[in-house]
């Protein structure tokens, strides 16, 4: 009875440790410290990506989860070895997807106003408030990727807003807006390249044709990952060869049939091989049709480029006028005095 009670207490303590935030990571033993991770990301980011994401750009700073100093937007998983000497323990490394970090306040220290009209009239600014709890999965041409962002909070009304919202993106410069790769709504997320293909008005092309094209690209990328993973697993047994895995996936097109056909491959051999994960299903035609009317910054790109070029031209003219009015001349324009030539030489024109 006492042993059962002690086991229940220890299990309760471990579950409480795993479910709470990793702010107090240094207080617990090392065998209980898996990795640093924001609390909300554990439920929205796939489990096979959490370890490499934590090791890539997250660190513990003063008891809190923070980003590493060499910040960048795109983070890619570590590449699997080209010639592995031992079979992989899991297929997570071969099927991991990239992650896009969108932290405009943390990266560029942008001055952002509160979206509420009462605070924006007073000039109340937003400040960083940690990681946003949800990681969004974005549809791409040959797969999916994930987008993570930060929380921004008003110092006056304490309103919190995500950094990928329209209220925040509209306050950034055009060059920064173009770096955000996706169009996000409340429930939908699609890459701008897919939206551009969706908006192209070609004769005889519809949303179903685009969905068929995306399905072919997704299946081709998924099968190449499966072939790479099963080729690495073939090192576990001499009976399993690369030609076997190639013949299996040459006749396999869908994820359901592939998982059933690889059961014999995973069961053969001395080393237990985990089957590849199923392919993430594609959205419906109605899902893709909702992005036709969504506005983005591509429509305003020519006007933004013209305004930027005019601004740079005016700045260049002002700087040239200041240099010509006072100060030493540059010697390249007629208004500036020419440099004195050495003895016996004529000045160059």
List keywords for this structure.
DUF6729; disordered C terminus; 349 residues; alpha+beta; 14 helices; DUF6729 domain-containing protein; two-stranded antiparallel sheet; six-stranded mixed β-sheet
Strand content: 5-15%
Helix content: 25-40%
Q: Give the N-terminus to C-terminus distance in angstroms.
A: 102 Å
Report the principal-axis shape: globular
How many β-strands, per DSSP?
A: 10
The SS-based structural class is alpha+beta
Count of helices? 14
Residue windows where pLDDT falls under 50 for at least 5 positions? 5-35, 237-265, 344-349
- Sheet with most strands: 6 strands, mixed
Q: SSE order in H/E notation?
A: HHHEEEEHHEEEEHHEEHHHHHHH
Protein name: DUF6729 domain-containing protein
Pfam families: DUF6729
InterPro entries: DUF6729 (IPR046616)
Organism: Alosa alosa (allis shad)
Tell me about this structure.
The chain is of the alpha+beta class and 349 residues long. The protein has 14 helices and ten strands. The strands form three sheets. Strands 3, 4, 5, 6, 7 and 8 form a six-stranded mixed beta sheet that branches. Helix 9 packs antiparallel against helix 10 (242-250). The chain starts with a helix and ends in a 24-residue tail after the last helix.
How would you summarize what this structure contains?
This protein is of the alpha+beta class. The protein contains 14 helices and ten strands. The protein is globular.
Layout of SSEs?
Layout: H1 2-19, H2 41-44, H3 47-57, E1 58-61, E2 64-67, E3 74-75, E4 99-102, H4 104-108, H5 117-122, E5 126-131, E6 136-139, E7 144-154, E8 160-162, H6 166-169, H7 174-177, E9 182-184, E10 189-191, H8 192-199, H9 207-233, H10 242-250, H11 255-261, H12 263-267, H13 285-289, H14 301-325
Helix pairs in contact: 9-10
């Amino acid at each position: 009875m006492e042993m059962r009670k002690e086991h229940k207490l220890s299990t309760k303590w471990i579950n409480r440790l795993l479910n709470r935030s990793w702010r107090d990571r240094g207080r617990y033993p090392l065998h209980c410290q898996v990795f640093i991770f924001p609390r909300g990301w554990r439920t929205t980011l796939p489990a096979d990506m959490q370890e490499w994401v934590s090791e890539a750009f997250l660190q513990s700073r003063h008891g809190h989860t923070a980003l590493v100093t060499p910040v960048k937007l795109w983070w890619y998983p570590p590449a699997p070895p080209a010639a592995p000497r031992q079979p992989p323990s899991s297929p997570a490394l071969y099927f991991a997807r990239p992650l896009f970090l969108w932290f405009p306040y943390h990266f560029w220290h942008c001055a952002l106003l509160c979206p509420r009209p009462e605070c924006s009239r007073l000039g109340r600014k937003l400040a960083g408030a940690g990681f946003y709890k949800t990681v969004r999965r974005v549809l791409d041409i040959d797969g999916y990727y994930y987008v993570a962002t930060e929380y921004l909070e008003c110092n006056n009304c304490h309103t919190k807003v995500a950094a990928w919202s329209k209220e925040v993106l509209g306050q950034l410069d055009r060059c920064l807006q173009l770096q955000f790769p996706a169009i996000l709504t409340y429930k939908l997320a699609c890459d701008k390249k897919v939206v551009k293909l969706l908006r192209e008005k070609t004769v005889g092309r519809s949303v179903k044709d685009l969905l068929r094209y995306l399905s072919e690209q997704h299946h081709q990328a998924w099968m190449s990952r499966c072939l790479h993973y099963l080729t690495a697993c073939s090192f576990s047994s001499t009976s399993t060869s690369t030609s076997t895995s190639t013949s299996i996936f040459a006749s396999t097109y869908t994820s359901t049939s592939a998982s059933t056909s690889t059961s014999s491959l995973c069961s053969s051999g001395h080393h237990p091989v985990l089957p590849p994960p199923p392919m993430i299903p594609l959205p419906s035609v109605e899902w893709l049709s909702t992005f036709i009317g969504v506005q983005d910054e591509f429509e305003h790109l020519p006007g933004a480029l013209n305004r930027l070029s005019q601004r740079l031209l005016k700045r260049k003219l002002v700087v040239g006028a200041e240099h010509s009015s006072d100060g030493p001349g540059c010697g390249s324009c007629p208004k500036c005095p020419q440099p004195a030539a050495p003895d016996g030489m004529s000045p160059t024109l």
